[in-house]
Amino acid sequence: MAEEKADLPSLGEDDGGVLNLTEVEPSPVEETPLEFKEGYFPSPASRSTSSTLGFGNHGPAYYLHRIQKYSSYAFTVFASFHIANTSIIPLITRSVPESNRYLLLTRPYYQSALTEPLVVALPLLAHVSSGIALRFYRRRQTLKRYGAETHRDRKTIPWPSLSGTSALGYALIPMAGFHFWTTRIFPIYMHGDNSMISLSYISHGFVSHPFVSFAGFTAMVGVGTWHFVWGWAKWLGLSPSQVSEVESKRHLIRKRRWYIINAVSALLTGLWLAGGLGIVGRDGKTGGWIGREFDELYNSMPLIGRWR
Ligand code: HEM
């Protein structure tokens, strides 16, 4: 303290003081100090190496996150068509043959050579692979931050945690993959054509393979819908973990969001299953030569051929 005082120029009684300094009124700092002004220190963004990699001023995580987000928009378009065709229209018409007409009407929009890759295959590939790439990127960042050098260091540092939404997403891959294979790839492989596949093909499967059909569709629709609704909540900034830390009622808001998101998921799952299982699942077998073609397809499926 004494040293500090000694450094200060002492002001005298009169306006000049011993060093002839003028005392001024204290006033707020109006200008940004030089060291905080732009250009004195490089900003964190311009310091990143990403600009040299052609990423503009953003890092790879920013772009991977955006790919993951916007690709799911395209899939949402398809999912909306799909819930309409397989549940809402059957619920309204209460007739599978009648609903098949609508299915065939909208099919060209998402199953053409151009639209199928654009609204289904490529967005899904982009969505899943950007999620995986983001995971590896974050892992590398964490290892760098902790200065992991040996194999043992790496083993002790945990991987980025897997959110419930991501876990549902991974669970959906084999289910949606199997569904796509049975309704799209396998019929083309067997008959060179997909045109006779309709809701009646699914109804037929419910009779010949009731257990696989009921359990499989219930699980896939449940897991898928929960993933979509939690996913959308995240994109809209409405998930429980996105409540601001400074919000005074954050515990209450978090809890409320959790209940609302799960309630919407349950309602949507219920709606999808009401039409899918309740109408399509109970329509029974198709007769005639088309029915025999369906039987042939189901019986030659490697996995479920023997399962009921
Ligand atoms: C309406 C469509 C969809 C939306 C809105 C959506 C949304 C999301 C969101 C927000 C995440 C990130 C979760 C997190 O970081 O906590 C995510 C991850 C994921 N999604 Fe989706 N998704 C959709 C469709 C799908 C579909 C159809 C599949 C697979 C068949 C899928 C597979 C995945 C996987 C595997 C991940 C995990 C990536 C990772 O974090 O490692 N998603 N999705």
UniProtKB/TrEMBL annotation:
One GO cellular component term noted in the UniProt record for this chain: mitochondrial outer membrane
Keyword Transmembrane helix: yes
Residue ranges of the region described as Disordered: 1-33
Name of the protein described by the UniProt record: Mitochondrial adapter protein MCP1 transmembrane domain-containing protein
Domain Mitochondrial adapter protein MCP1 transmembrane: 174-284
Source organism of the structure: Periconia macrospinosa
Xref: InterPro entries: MCP1, MCP1_TM
Biased composition (Low complexity): 21-31
